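Model: Ready when you are.
Researcher: Fold this.
Model:
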Amino acid sequence: MSKVKYIDIGACGDQLPEDRHECPASEVYAMSEKHRITNCPACGGSDFAIGRLVCEDCGTAIDGRFALSRLAALDESQLSFVITFLESRGNISDVERKLGISYPTVRSRLDRVVRKLGVVEDDVQAKRRAVLTALQNREMSPDEAVATLRDLQ
């Protein structure tokens, strides 16, 4: 049986010494995004489970094994991108403008988020993406791309 190593992270995000159980900060507050932990500090793994839920109002704690949201798997830049994408209601032109990046960069970041979240594309979406990639790489003319995309509908 392997030994479990507990690392206590205070409300301020600092790792606490084993003999301390309170954050050096005088007030308790929700951890900000900059204190979000995405990888295990001991082994580097990213498959986390929540072990304790605490009510901020009354202090009641529930111990158990609770799953994380799929969005918790995203790193800070990916989460920021998703928030911008949602604020733009999925309008890629708005995302381009807000982030100051090109259409292919927006698509690339979106594709990475989709893969990381394990969202499955259907066959038509995958074929459309392949056509757009071929067009971007100049492996297909614009007329061929338009014809191929029309055939997919």
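Researcher: Now this one.
Model:
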Amino acid sequence: MIDFETEFDPERAKSLQIANDLRQAIVSGRLRAGERVPAELQLIQQYSVSRTTVRRALADLRSEGLVEVRTPKGTYVVDREPTASVTLRSGDSAVARMPTPAERHAHELLKEGEPVIEIHRKNGKVEIHGAYRARLVVE
């Protein structure tokens, strides 16, 4: 058995709690798409934590694709409503995965933390779609 000596980091625990609270507000609809997340200063005061702790929580939510930073306006809930339909026909297949850095650069509309849907067409062509904007339709 491996004995891990891990030190408890109360600041990390607090950032996880802040991220969990904000995530729940987003999932429940209390914070809606396009709505501004409480300012860093407000979160610092509300949770009695450092700016680093709040930024770590917001970074977690950014990496999950739930929020985006609009400099200098603040942090906003991402609109995840699909905007395009992608049709899968007989013989096609789809795989969801995280994009490579090159794909993220090539597809400028991909949000931080947004997965892609890779469509493999029967004819051998491969298409990449941002998962938050694509609605799959099966024929």
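Researcher: Key takeaway?
Model: The mean pLDDT is 87.
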